[in-house]
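Ticket 4471: requesting a sanity check on a complex prediction with 2-acetamido-2-deoxy-beta-D-glucopyranose. Repro inputs:
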Amino acid sequence: MLVVCELALGLSLFALSADAAVAIPFQGKRDVDTRYPYTGPAVPIGDWVDQTVKGNGKGFPRLVEPPAVKPANSTVTNNVNVISLSYIPNGVNVHYQTPFGLDANPTVHWGLSPSNLCNSSTGQTVSYDRTPTCSAVVVTQCSQYFHNVQLDNLAADTTYYYQIPASNGTTASQTLSFKTARAAGDQKAFTVAVLNDMGYTNAHGTYQQLNQAVSEGVAFAWHGGDISYADDWYSGILPCESDWPVCYNGTSTNLPGGPPIPAEYDAPLPAGELPNQGGPQGGDMSVLYESNWDLWQQWMNNLTLKIPYMVLPGNHEASCGEFDGPNNILTAYLNDDKTNSSAPKSELTYYSCPPSQRNFTAYQNRFRMPGTETGGVGNFWYSFDYGLAHFVSIDGETDFPYSPEWPFVRDATSNETLPTEAQTFITDSGPFGDIDAENWKSNEAYQQWQWLKQDLASVDRTKTPWIIAMSHRPMYSSQVSSYQTDVRDAFEPLLLQYGVDAYLAGHIHWYERLFPLGRNGTIASSNIVNNNTYYTGDGKSITHVINGMAGNIESHSTLGDDPVLNITAVLNQRNYGFSKFTFHNATTATWQYVKGDGTGYGDQLTLLKKNATLSR
Ligand SMILES: *[C@@H]1O[C@H](CO)[C@@H](O)[C@H](O)[C@H]1NC(C)=O
Ligand SMILES: *[C@@H]1O[C@H](CO)[C@@H](O)[C@H](O)[C@H]1NC(C)=O
Ligand SMILES: *[C@@H]1O[C@H](CO)[C@@H](O)[C@H](O)[C@H]1NC(C)=O
Ligand SMILES: *[C@@H]1O[C@H](CO)[C@@H](O)[C@H](O)[C@H]1NC(C)=O
Ligand SMILES: *[C@@H]1O[C@H](CO)[C@@H](O)[C@H](O)[C@H]1NC(C)=O
Ligand SMILES: *[C@@H]1O[C@H](CO)[C@@H](O)[C@H](O)[C@H]1NC(C)=O
Ligand SMILES: *[C@@H]1O[C@H](CO)[C@@H](O)[C@H](O)[C@H]1NC(C)=O
Ligand SMILES: *[C@@H]1O[C@H](CO)[C@@H](O)[C@H](O)[C@H]1NC(C)=O
Ligand SMILES: *[C@@H]1O[C@H](CO)[C@@H](O)[C@H](O)[C@H]1NC(C)=O
Ligand SMILES: *[C@@H]1O[C@H](CO)[C@@H](O)[C@H](O)[C@H]1NC(C)=O
Ligand SMILES: *[C@@H]1O[C@H](CO)[C@@H](O)[C@H](O)[C@H]1NC(C)=O
Ligand SMILES: *[C@@H]1O[C@H](CO)[C@@H](O)[C@H](O)[C@H]1NC(C)=O
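Returned structure tokens:
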């Protein structure tokens, strides 16, 4: 039956709007510093043999992934390649990506039944000057215009149907659907997929299990940073090094944990390529930074079209690179446009990457998290409720004292307002919020800290007895590192003060569950019920999990000869996967580490609250 929309007139108004949509830069204070020129290749390509953007079949293969919308015909001039959903308060943000601009402001038609998409919402487009631009890349494999349409004032826990109409050469999407978040206080059980450090290589088992979880009704996915590993585009041009887990040379590949080595690693090294720190594709998926983003996002369409996909920043989102290999081959390429050459280590600066590949630029455009709507900042820090739980995304990369990515104020000497080129580093980023009086050593000076305190203080535990926080960086691990002290000093007292139940992280590429820990890593023995059951949420301790095992080109982390500390309850350095977090009711939640190879669970943990009082 054909349903005639009452708003038909309004819809045609949108369709007829003659105003070409103008893509606007990021709405916040996004700022890429260009005081010193970029002097590298027009398009850095992580392949010495095949220095073309599209590939000619002689170097590393260029992978392809299907776009979100299959074009209606073969002479395609524009296309919707990625669609992803995220929560905003009382609604959903529909994000979609095209290589070229649209005729009008982005639009979504929607309604409560697939045959009745009578409501229409319009949004805004953002863009950045990506390297290379989409005019150089295949139309169905490239994103440069990022459209965000907010559907708000929706009913909670309700399925809505929507369609993205055709515009400037794109094909209209099929009728798709999503389910809104449950209202805070809704007491029904639900499950969340939690994953960290994914990328592409080694993540195929995780991907399969994630898709399975979606078909079983997982409510949403929460990805704690290190998303596409786009910055590993250059792993195929870095010579092997003994401290790097992967050495691909086509005949005798090393991967942590030893054999079996996936068959793809037996692909012969293309003639002229160096044995390298990458995989058979050279980079994670592609040898171009931006194409890695495009292809990873397209790969993930099968999830992001169906469930909200919430993200937070990790170090791999910061810029086009974060370290160099022997002889600083990358530095020579980026700074001097010299292939297979060398350069002094000190020359790897903030200005080494093309301007569009610095300061979380791709990350800021390719996602739309509810920072603005929840008092936070952009895709960096924000919170949201779902049923019995309050979820808090923390930025563990920038915007706290001694953050792993440095703000310029920390590079500069006290007599400078900005650092010189040589004083910067390739991953310098942020701050994305304010630092009062530039007092970068003080927790309280940071907008993020002020927000976190206020956000935790305002949680109504009678509605959301569970509070779960995540950032990319762990506070503790048997793999001890100095950033852990900095993350603790910034956030641990607040999380304890407000009785946060669990702190999730990634960054280290393994699964590690810690005993319940109080301030400075004291084991709260009274909160250990047994090996697989902890009491939580009483402010005396927090349950910490490092969930960094989704799989990525860097493969598993290994402890080597270092000891397993007594804070570690479970350590798995071998299986890829993700975790399912189920909130059964106000006093019981269960955490299950799903192994990517389909052989079941690598760990199971029950969290119990001694008491919780729900409002009716
Ligand atoms: C990064 O962007 C933010 C605005 O979003 C700006 O305040 C900051 O100075 C930039 N940092 C660097 C290192 O470019
Ligand atoms: C429409 O798409 C074409 C490419 O097919 C592009 O050149 C043009 O800029 C787009 N129009 C707008 C308004 O962005
Ligand atoms: C959706 O459309 C209906 C009528 O077609 C209207 O009553 C309702 O307010 C609209 N909802 C929103 C959130 O705009
Ligand atoms: C293919 O799509 C283009 C752009 O939308 C359109 O101009 C053209 O007429 C279409 N061709 C066919 C055969 O439908
Ligand atoms: C997409 O996800 C569905 C479950 O939601 C799954 O059945 C299907 O196999 C997935 N497709 C691919 C290509 O993985
Ligand atoms: C790959 O490594 C093995 C073991 O180190 C070595 O014997 C072999 O020659 C290497 N192959 C190439 C192409 O470098
Ligand atoms: C700033 O101080 C440094 C030492 O901290 C000194 O080397 C440099 O010359 C000073 N620069 C200016 C412009 O005064
Ligand atoms: C935790 O360690 C910090 C120094 O890192 C110290 O100042 C503080 O007193 C310690 N707190 C507790 C409760 O042990
Ligand atoms: C608890 O775990 C420890 C170490 O992992 C193990 O030795 C012990 O047998 C376990 N206890 C029970 C009751 O499973
Ligand atoms: C139990 O709940 C009450 C009321 O919400 C609260 O005051 C008390 O601190 C809670 N006790 C524990 C151990 O969490
Ligand atoms: C764990 O080890 C630390 C030293 O690393 C020690 O201070 C602490 O007492 C130990 N805790 C337990 C419960 O054994
Ligand atoms: C909460 O859920 C758990 C797991 O399903 C169950 O064992 C427990 O009885 C439930 N508690 C309440 C108060 O319903």
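Notes from triage: DSSP finds nine helices and 23 strands in the chain. Leaving this open until the requester confirms.
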